[in-house]
Structure formats: structure tokens, C-alpha cells
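User: Teach me something about this protein's shape.
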Amino acid sequence: MRSTSPLADKLRQNLLTITITVAVYTLVYTTNVWLFTHIEFNQGIAWIYLPAGIRLICTLLFAEAGVIGILIGSLLTSSIYALFPGDPVTTIGYSAISALAPYLSYRFTLREMRLQPSLSNLTTTNLLACILLYGLANPLLQLMWFVLRGVSYHFWSGLIVMSIGDLTGSLIVVYAIKLLLSFFPLPRN
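Assistant: First, the predicted structure itself:
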């Protein structure tokens, strides 16, 4: 019996991670639309934005494979929900920022907080700092892009609302995952 090469195993694992990230992101995005569209501040600017938490968690857990999954998931949801109809440049920029903002926050916290890539030394304080950094970086980059593209002219009010939405969504997702994990026994060392 022939075994697969380590490179093929790594590629298969990354493709599975990307696929799972796309599926989870799309599902959470759809849930967010279903639950919170009626309280949106403006199209693309939500008071509660659960996908922000998925973006951060997938980046923390899966690094570059998570970023690719978020990029694909964001392109997919942007197309399904026609966020920027007839404007593929804005869609691609929005999706790239959606993937890169949590990754940049992750890389910054790895370096500045001296986190291990395995996140074995991730504390609640470090996680909250990462959420805060991402909750401010993503809205700032998104809104600069929206203003540059002429999609939104509500920079300051949009920045406040989007920051609240990203922070709230991230906290909800992180604590929901923490709650779910509390039902499973911890592995013994």
C-alpha cells in the first residue's frame, strides 16, 4: 500500500480547512442577515455582525488557510447577497479587507504579545485585545475603502456603528464557542 506524501497531506488538510471556513462563514453570514438585517445602520454596516467573530476565530485557528477561506466565503456571500451589484472592484476589495484585517490583527498580536503560533499561551486578556484590535482595524479599513469607492459617505458614524457591530459579533461568537466547548471534557495531559 502506497502512503501519500507529507506535501499531499498538507494540501489536503489546507483544502479541508478552507472548505470548512467557507461553509461556516457562509452559514454565519446567512444567519446574521436573517437575524439582524432589519436593524442595519446602512447596507454593509451592521449593529451586530457575527461574521466578524468567525473571521477572527478562523484566522486565529487556521492562519493562512483561514484567510483564504474567509476571502472565498466573503466573495461568495457578497455575490449571493449582491452587496455591490455591478461593482466587482468594490466586492473584491471588500472581500480582501474582510480576510486581511483579522490576519493583520492576528500577526500583530503574535508579535507584540509574544503569542505562540499554536496559541497555547493565549489568555483571555490577549484574546480581548485581539478582538478589540480587529474590531477597530476592520471597520477603519472597510470604511476607507467604501469612501474611496463612493459606496458610503458616512465615515465617522459608519466607523462607530461598524466597530460596535464587529466587537459585539466577535464577542458573541467567541463566548458562544467557549460555552459550547465547556460541554466537552478537557483532554488529560
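Now, about its shape. The radius of gyration is 17 Å. The mean pLDDT is 90. If you'd like, I can walk through any region in more detail.
User: That's plenty for now, thanks!
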